[in-house]
Amino acid sequence: MKILIVNDDGYNSAGIIALARSLQHEHEVFLCAPLENQSAVGHGLTLRRELSAVRTELPGCEAVTAYHVNGTPVDCLRIALGNLGFEPELVLSGINQAPNLGTDIISSGTVAGACEAAMLGYNAIAVSRDGFDEEYFDDAAASFLELLPSLLRCMTAEKHLLNVNFPHTPRAQYRGVRTGYIAMQQYPLRFMERITDDGKILYKPRSVKLTAVADGDTSDEKYVRDGYITVTPLIYDYTDYGHMAAIKQGIERDFE
């Protein structure tokens, strides 16, 4: 299979290298990823400067054609498809170094890369691993390779975007696979503050997760915390069709 890999952590991050390395023996792999970390850039596009795509090599990925782009994950995806001439059968985004669970998918560059591919008509899967260190990426990559046929069977011509998260454990400790809805994530609202020598106040967000999940919860957040791999189908249509029908009578009118 011809597979395009993108991410938001950067072209030389441990997760994307583990994924490419595991896939290269069975598939034709083309990698196009950001030059620098682009975490939490969401669906951003670079509009006010020119971009460059540079051919590169990655350790242990001798069979992989790889480029880095000085832009966002969506930039990388579009350049690979539109300018570098690769036509994939599947687009993968990841493996991300940190989970993409619940409403965090809204700001995730990893999910955005897969979402853009799905919007263009490609089968696409965002892949992440819980935790902020570089442990267990090879475990997640090997398990993903085994799951891939089942994941492909989950997609149709109309529904072809999946979000997959692995727990932060060795592969032998995975408890199974679950399908969970996206949790409502909560973080501290107040930014950390630092006063510079010249009296300027600088702000930095806190990444401490405050999300609480009940024992019987079936969200992606809960399942990953319990040691399961989660698979969540996503859509990119933001339309609230139920509310649209409800407000139709009150808002629609013709102007004379």
What report would you give on this structure?
It contains 6 helices and 11 strands. It is of the alpha/beta class and 256 residues long. The strands form 2 sheets. Strands 3-4-2-1-5-6-7-11-8 form a 9-stranded mixed β-sheet. The longest helix is centred in the middle third of the chain and has 17 residues, at 137-153.
What layout of secondary structure does this protein have?
Layout: E1 2-6, H1 14-23, E2 28-34, E3 53-56, E4 65-69, H2 73-82, E5 90-97, H3 109-119, E6 124-129, H4 137-153, E7 161-166, E8 177-178, E9 192-195, E10 201-204, H5 220-225, E11 229-233, H6 241-251
Helix pairs in contact: 1-4, 2-3
Features:
256 residues; Stationary-phase Survival Protein Sure Homolog, Chain: A; alpha/beta; 22% strand
Short description:
By secondary structure, the protein is of the alpha/beta class.
Reported CATH architecture: 3-Layer(aba) Sandwich
The CA-CA distance between the termini, in Å, is 58 Å
* CATH-assigned fold name: Stationary-phase Survival Protein Sure Homolog, Chain: A
Number of strands: 11
Helix content: 25-40%
What structural class results from the helix and strand content?
alpha/beta
Low-confidence stretches: none
Oligomer state equals: single chain
How big is the Rg?
20 Å
Proportion of residues in extended strands: 15-25%
Return the average pLDDT rounded to an integer: 97
Order of helices and strands: EHEEEHEHEHEEEEHEH
Q: How many helical stretches? A: 6
Full CATH superfamily name? Survival protein SurE-like phosphatase/nucleotidase
Total count of domains: 1
Global shape: globular
The level 1 CATH classification is Alpha Beta
Mind describing the biggest β-sheet?
9 strands, mixed
Strand order of the largest sheet: 3-4-2-1-5-6-7-11-8
